[in-house]
Amino acid sequence: MTLLGWPTGLFVVTGIPLAVLVATIVWRK
């Protein structure tokens, strides 16, 4: 990966589950 691509990939890997978790919490409220 490039220097720019690695943080982007890390953000995708960590960001998607986090977004799902937040969406679930908000939806339940």
What does this entry look like structurally?
- The chain is an all-alpha fold.
- It contains one helix and no strands.
Topology:
Elements: H1 5-28
Q: Quick recap of the structure?
A:
The chain contains one helix and no strands. It has 29 residues and is mainly alpha-helical.
Main sheet properties: none
Secondary-structure element pattern, one letter each: H
Q: What share of residues are in beta strands?
A: under 5%
What is the share of helical residues? over 70%
Instruction: Supply Rg.
Output: 13 Å
What spatial form do the alpha-carbon principal axes imply?
rod-shaped
Structural class: mainly alpha
Helical stretch tally: 1
The low-confidence runs, each spanning 5 or more residues with pLDDT under 50, are none
The N- and C-terminal alpha carbons lie at a distance of: 39 Å
Q: Average the pLDDT over all residues and give the rounded result.
A: 86
Counted beta strands = 0
Transmembrane segments: 6-27
Keywords: Membrane, Transmembrane, Transmembrane helix
Task: Name the features.
29 residues; mainly alpha; 1 helix; 83% helix; membrane; transmembrane; transmembrane helix
